[in-house]
């Protein structure tokens, strides 16, 4: 199986390996190889590799000595990775601690282990965490070439939506004006800005907006990003007819904000509307709500009906990509 590898002269190999390791880019499933004076380092996210490093495709050997958390347990544990943090969702704290110990003893590049201690709650959609290993709940995460710093105890962030975010980002053109109504720490805002768009990100959570500003600087897009700490309904009047693209990723209640979205939309605007609905009719309620808010001022065309993931038994998290044309 061919995988992307960074290729550097052998004498530069250790320096390159350290750079890649610091950004958590090395694919630990494969061995680093030396061949004909060159070092080949397998990478997990080639889009995030610095531009001065060459990437080639190779078929490296799989690591045979890598230990996994399952090696130290009698079962295969479930967890998510976010940078160098492992996120658990265990009701039994003793079991959670057992998994945390196994993760730390494995070859995974993990320094922090957190267990979910509550559901997402409140207007800012944060949750409580039990810190099982590490110093605090702040993590650094890389996604499709962008770097984010965030505190999981203070802001909402879902690594599961990385592929969906990239699907939207790939639709953005240089010179667009984009508006994220519920921006968080910037997982839509930052990559959209890197595509050359001017982006406004609004969020009620002041901590999220502070991280959004920091992340804009980390990714060298601060000149393209306006970060606003407010209820987007209070901000909409300042951006009448402004946006070529609007992201509405608040799936439980995005319909409450459609009047503001229509106000912000320019003459030709694409709306990415996220919803959670029963599997029997996952797209109908959202489409009807958008039409009720936008027609007859706009012609409404649903360009994509996309299922993001299963959310709960018989419930789907979906996205409608909708074009509004005045």
UniProtKB/TrEMBL annotation:
GO cellular component: cytoplasm
Entry-linked CDD domains: AdoMet_MTases
Span of domain SAM-dependent methyltransferase TRM5/TYW2-type: 79-326
Entry keyword annotation includes Cytoplasm: yes
Keyword Membrane: no
Keywords associated with the record: Cytoplasm, Methyltransferase, S-adenosyl-L-methionine, Transferase, tRNA processing
Pfam families (UniProt xref): TRM5-TYW2_MTfase (PF02475), Trm5_N (PF18093), TYW2_N_2 (PF25133)
Record-level GO BP terms: tRNA N1-guanine methylation
Gene Ontology MF annotations: tRNA methyltransferase activity
InterPro entries documented for this protein: MeTrfase_TRM5/TYW2, SAM-dependent_MTases_sf, TRM5-TYW2-like_MTfase, TRM5/TYW2-like_N, Trm5a/b_N
Protein name: Methyltransferase
Origin species: Natronobacterium gregoryi (strain ATCC 43098 / DSM 3393 / CCM 3738 / CIP 104747 / IAM 13177 / JCM 8860 / NBRC 102187 / NCIMB 2189 / SP2)
């Amino acid at each position: 199986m061919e995988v992307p590898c960074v290729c550097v002269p052998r004498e530069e190999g250790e320096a390159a390996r350290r750079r890649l390791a610091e950004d958590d880019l090395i694919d630990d499933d494969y061995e680093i190889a030396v061949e004909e004076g060159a070092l080949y380092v397998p990478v997990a996210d080639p889009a995030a590799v610095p531009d001065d490093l060459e990437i080639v495709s190779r078929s490296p050997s799989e690591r045979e000595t890598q230990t996994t958390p399952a090696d130290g347990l009698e079962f295969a544990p479930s967890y998510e990775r976010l940078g160098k943090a492992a996120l658990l969702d265990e009701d039994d704290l003793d079991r959670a601690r057992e998994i945390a110990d196994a993760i730390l003893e494995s070859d995974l590049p993990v320094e922090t282990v957190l267990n979910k201690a509550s559901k997402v709650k409140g207007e800012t959609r944060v949750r409580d965490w039990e810190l099982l290993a590490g110093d605090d709940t702040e993590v650094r995460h890389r996604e499709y070439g962008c770097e984010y710093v965030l505190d999981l105890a203070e802001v909402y962030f879902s690594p599961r939506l990385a592929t969906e975010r990239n699907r939207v980002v790939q639709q953005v053109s240089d010179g667009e004006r984009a508006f994220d109504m519920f921006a968080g720490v910037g997982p839509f805002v930052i990559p959209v800005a890197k595509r050359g768009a001017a982006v406004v990100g609004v969020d009620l959570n002041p901590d999220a907006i502070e991280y959004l500003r920091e992340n804009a600087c980390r990714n060298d897009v601060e000149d393209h990003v306006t970060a606003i700490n407010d209820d987007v309904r209070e901000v909409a009047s300042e951006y009448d007819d402004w946006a070529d693209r609007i992201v509405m990723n608040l799936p439980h209640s995005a319909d409450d904000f459609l009047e503001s979205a229509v106000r912000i939309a320019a003459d030709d605007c694409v709306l990415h509307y996220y919803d959670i609905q029963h599997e029997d009719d996952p797209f109908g309620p959202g489409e009807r709500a958008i039409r009720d808010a936008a027609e007859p001022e706009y012609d409404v065309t649903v360009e994509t009906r996309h299922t993001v993931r299963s959310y709960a038994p018989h419930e789907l998290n979906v996205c409608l990509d909708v074009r509004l044309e005045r």
